[in-house]
Design goal:
This protein is an alpha+beta fold. It is built from twelve helices and eight strands. 31% of the residues are buried. The model is unreliable at 234-243 and 246-251 (pLDDT under 50).
C-alpha cells in the first residue's frame, strides 16, 4: 500500500506541475462565467428590461420592422419571447454567428445588440482556448489542445489525489476534512488543498469530464457510448432559431408567426421562453436538469396552423445528451443552488494548483 500511495503521489505531483497553471486559469475563468447572464443584465438593464405597456406588438410585425433595418445578406431567423412581461424580446439574426438584437415588444424600439460583455469574452476565450484562434489553414488549434490536455491531466490528478488522501481511520478522516484557520500559512494552504479538494471533488470531476467532450472527438464518442448514446455532429438539434424569414416564393413569412405562437400557447401550457422561426416554435420550460430541453412544434407558414409536435421526451438521445453536458458543465442543472455550488467548486479548483505549488516549492526549499 505504501508503494501504491507513493506511486500515485508522484503521478499526482508530476502531472500537476506542468499543467497546474492552465488548470488554474481554466477553473477561474469557468467560475467567472457561471453568472454571466445575471451580471450582464445587471450591467445593461436598459437592454433587457422593458416597462409593460398594454399588449405586446404582433411578433410578425415586429420581426418585419427589424428586418427592414438590416443590411443586405442579414435576415431575421427567429424571435425569442419570454414569459416575463418585463423582459425584452430577442430577435435572432442570420449573421454573424449568434447575432441578435433586443427589442421592446411594446414600442418596437430596437434597444441594442445582444452579446457578451468584453470581460466575459476574454473569460470565455481564456477558458476554451487560452486566447488562441483557430488556424484558417487547418493547422493544430494549440489553445484548444492545451486546455484539453490540461483538463485530462486534471481528471487524473483528482483521482490520484483521492488515493493519496484516503485516511486510515475515522479519526484521521475527520482531521483530513478540516481547514485550520489559526495554525499558520502552511496548515491553511494545506487544508485548502486537501480538504477543499475533497469538498469540490465530485463537481470538479463532473465539470472536467463534460468539458472534455468539447476538446476531443474521441472522448466525446466514448462519453456518449458510456450512456448508450451515439454521438452525432448536428443534424438533430432543435434550436428554434434556424431558418430565414423568407418563404420559397420570396415573400415574407412573418405574418403567420403570431398565429403560430397563439396556437402553440394554447396547448403548450406554462413556459419560460418560446422561440418562433420559419415553420417552427421551440417551447422551453428551463427548470432543473437539462435547461436546453424544449418541445418543438411545426406550423404552416402560410396559415400559422400547427402541423406537428415533437416533445422533448421523443427527441434524439444525442440532443438530450448535449443539453445535459451543457447543464452539468455550467452548473445550470440545479437552479441557482447548483450554480452557486459550481461557482465555489470552480474557485476551489483554481486554488488547488496554487496551493499545490506552494506546498511543493516549500518542500524543495527545505530540502
Amino acid at each position: 500500500m505504501r508503494f501504491n500511495k507513493k506511486f500515485f503521489l508522484n503521478l499526482h505531483l508530476w502531472l500537476s506541475v506542468p499543467f497546474g497553471l492552465v488548470v488554474a486559469v481554466t477553473c477561474f475563468t469557468g467560475a467567472m462565467l457561471v453568472f454571466e447572464d445575471e451580471l450582464t443584465r445587471a450591467v445593461r438593464p436598459g437592454l433587457y428590461e422593458v416597462v409593460p405597456l398594454g399588449e405586446p406588438l404582433d411578433v410578425g410585425a415586429l420581426a418585419a420592422s427589424v428586418a427592414a433595418t438590416l443590411p443586405d445578406g442579414v435576415e431575421v431567423t427567429g424571435v425569442a419571447v419570454s414569459a416575463d412581461a418585463d423582459e425584452a424580446w430577442r430577435v435572432n439574426l442570420s449573421r454573424p454567428k449568434h447575432a441578435a438584437v433586443m427589442v421592446n415588444q411594446y414600442t418596437g424600439e430596437v434597444l441594442g445588440e445582444a452579446g457578451r460583455l468584453p470581460f466575459f469574452s476574454v473569460m470565455f476565450r481564456l477558458h476554451r482556448w487560452l486566447m488562441d484562434s483557430r488556424d484558417g489553414d487547418g493547422g493544430v488549434f494549440w489553445g484548444k489542445v492545451i486546455v484539453g490536455a490540461s483538463t485530462l491531466a486534471f481528471v487524473v490528478v483528482l483521482v490520484t489525489g483521492v488515493v493519496v488522501w484516503w485516511p486510515r481511520s475515522r479519526r484521521a478522516l475527520g482531521k483530513s476534512l478540516q481547514i485550520p484557520l489559526r495554525r499558520g500559512a502552511w496548515q491553511l494552504w494545506r487544508g485548502i488543498h486537501v480538504a477543499g479538494g475533497m469538498y469540490a471533488l465530485v463537481l470538479l470531476l463532473a465539470m472536467a469530464v463534460t468539458g472534455l467532450t468539447w476538446s476531443f472527438p474521441w472522448w466525446r464518442t466514448g462519453f456518449y457510448a458510456v450512456f448508450g448514446v451515439e454521438s452525432q455532429q448536428g443534424g438533430d438539434r432543435h434550436r428554434g432559431d434556424g431558418g430565414g424569414g423568407k418563404d420559397k416564393d420570396g415573400g415574407t413569412a412573418f405574418v403567420s408567426w403570431q398565429r403560430a405562437l397563439d396556437a402553440v400557447s394554447g396547448v403548450a401550457g406554462e413556459f419560460s421562453r418560446m422561440t418562433v422561426s420559419d415553420g417552427k416554435v421551440s417551447v422551453s420550460r428551463a427548470g432543473w436538469g437539462n435547461v436546453r430541453a424544449s418541445d418543438i412544434y411545426t406550423f404552416d407558414t402560410a396559415t400559422g396552423e400547427v402541423t406537428g409536435r415533437t416533445l422533448y421526451a421523443d427527441q434524439p438521445d444525442s440532443g438530450k445528451m448535449r443539453g445535459w453536458i451543457y447543464a452539468v458543465h455550467t452548473g445550470h442543472w440545479g437552479g441557482m443552488a447548483g450554480r452557486v455550488l459550481s461557482f465555489l467548486a470552480a474557485l476551489l479548483g483554481a486554488a488547488l494548483p496554487l496551493t499545490g505549488y506552494y506546498m511543493w516549492i516549500r518542500r524543495l526549499a527545505r530540502r
